[in-house]
Amino acid sequence: MWTADECSKYFLCLEGEVFEFRCSTGLLFDVNRQICDFKLNVDNCDITSEVVIPKPLLEKANCPEQDQLGCADGTCLPQEYFCDGSMDCPDGSDEGYCDANDDPNGATPCDPSCVLPNCFCSKDGTKIPGNLHPSQVPQMILLTFDDAINDENWDIYKNKLFPPEYQNPNGCPIRATFFVSHQYNNYQYTQKLWNDGHEIAVHSITHRGPEDWWSSNATIEDWFDEMVGQANILNRFSKIRLEDIKGLRVPFLRVGWNRQFLMMKEFGFLYDSSMVAPFSNPPLWPYTLDHKMPHKCTGNKQVCPSRSYPGVWELPMNQLEVGDFTCGMVDSCPANLSGDDVYKMLVHNFKRHYLSNRAPYGIYFHSTWFKKAEYLNAFQKFLNDVLKQHDVWFVTNWQAIQWIRKPKPLDQLHNFVPWGCKKQLDVSEMACSIPNICKLHSRVFQQDRYLYTCSECPPKYPWIRNEFGLD
Q1: In the predicted model, what is the mean pLDDT of residues 4-10?
Q2: Does 60 reside within a domain?
Q3: What are the disulphide bonds in this sequence (predicted)?
Q4: Would you say residue 2 has pLDDT above 60?
Q5: How far apart are CA 200 and CA 189, in angstroms?
């Protein structure tokens, strides 16, 4: 029997030396998840080290049935059991080696039978949809913002980045995609952005750490709880139609292997935008996951999907080039840039897209980046300059996918319905002028939290596995 004192110990190897640490009082160390957690959530105190999973024999086991493969211990199981997200081999070897190259049920390379509107791929990911000449392709710019929408960034969004005078060539206001996480989010503001035509997408309920949890430890049930739960919260407290919630981005850009995409396929999410692609010239176009990804899975211990997910789109995050550096999110670029450097960076990368295959130019932000006045000014200058071009459009992620599914040349875009701005809203979907300010107790945080919504206040603070805030 292990005592709480023993179970709170863990060891780290730093520069060749082993150091002993302890979890904070009341927490125990979970060996499998490699984190400290509450006693209720830790049930493996008897395990003293991580289990090394052996490599399966697969075909080398010479299983009696044609559709079977061998575990490391020789046990034969149906091929479909391997890399499906649940351990079936006695030694767990069916789930130990499951990247795109090792998954026996892995996706196949791009095939000529993959045709639009529901399937799109190319050998290196740079092919233009519809085989259009670059001069006939609109240069789409995708602005995305991660995390909560609240008083910290509302003025920036409403008045600095999206005033009505910033318009696309068809006279409609420019639009962006907001990946919303729950904690500290203002659902009245979120509803207003949706009313204005911006896309609201999912960024999880908890945005919990550690970062590796999302790629290594989150189960399929966890993915449902986090992502579908947040979609339900957006629907309940911002009145956003579930059918309008098309995509998601994973916290910390930690892709969740096949578990994430199984959840997406099952619930009906139509795209992910979490994969930072290796830097390439020309840049990559979005693609569907019917076939293998056309690029490597980048990142430390990153785990990209290995299976085929027909009809699910990936909007890869093309990196920005800044001198000798490359960066995915704008705020991960070198911190010593001046406002002039930022403007030159934005223009340089715009030209890298515009003068080649015109793949969508994604610029990915956390709103705190704009707190630096010279950065905000540099971005506004960039906006004013590129909006003078007749072939540049600021669209949402989903609007970009709609164009890719049915490519239209430049001279047909003024009447392209998905890029219009005639949005029909029911009275019940219109954001209120004054929200309900709900002071709610949170069982998880053991304190009161505030919820801003045009809907009625729930009894409790909404959270994972209780997204409607029920008693």
Answers
A1: 76
A2: yes
A3: 71-89, 83-98
A4: no
A5: 11
Secondary structure (3-state) at 327: strand
Do 208 and 171 sit in the same domain of this protein?
Answer: yes
The reply to whether 35 and 171 lie within a common domain is no
Using an 8 Å Cβ cutoff, are 258 and 83 in contact? yes
33 — pLDDT class (breaks 50, 70, 90): low
State the Cα–Cα distance between residues 148 and 199, nearest whole angstrom.
14
Instruction: Determine the 3-state secondary structure of 363 from DSSP.
Output: strand
Question: Rounded to an integer, what distance in angstroms lies between the CA atom of residue 433 and that of residue 234?
Answer: 18
Cβ-in-10-Å burial (0-12, 13-18, 19+) of 413 comes to middle
Going by their DSSP bridges, the two strands 361-366 and 139-146 should be labelled as parallel
Exposure string over 272-294, b if 16+ CB within 10 A, otherwise e: bbbbbbeebebbbbbbbbbbbbb
In angstroms, the Cα distances linking 423 to 196, 407, 429 are: 8, 22, 11
The 10 Å Cβ neighbour count of residue 131 is 7
Out of 20-29, 86-95, 165-174, 444-453, pick the least confident. Answer: 20-29
CB-count exposure of residue 336 (10 Å: 0-12, 13-18, 19+): exposed
**What pLDDT does 313 receive?**
98
Residues 31 and 80 in one domain: no
Inter-residue contact 252 to 78 (CB < 8 Å): no
Is residue 397 located within the same domain as residue 323? yes
CA angle 243, 245, 246 (to 5 degrees): 95
Q: Are residues 298 and 333 in the same domain?
A: yes
What tens digit of pLDDT does each residue of 96-140 get? 888 888 899 999 999 999 999 999 999 999 999 999 999 999 999
Cβ contact 314:355 at 8 Å: no
Among 201, 171, 242, smallest CA distance to 419 is for 171
Q: Cβ(312)–Cβ(271) under 8 Å?
A: yes
With bands split at pLDDT 50, 70 and 90, how would you rate the model's confidence at 471?
confident
Same domain, 101 and 189: no
CB of 458 closer than 8 Å to CB of 468: yes
Does residue 27 sit in the same domain as residue 61?
no
Task: Judge residue 299's burial from the number of C-beta atoms within 10 Å of its C-beta, 0-12 exposed, 13-18 middle, 19 or more buried.
Answer: middle
Please indicate, yes or no, if residue 433 is contained in any of the structural domains: no
Dihedral pair phi/psi, residue 310, rounded to 5°: -55, 130
Tens-digit pLDDT profile for residues 315-361: 999 999 999 999 999 999 999 999 999 999 999 999 999 999 999 99
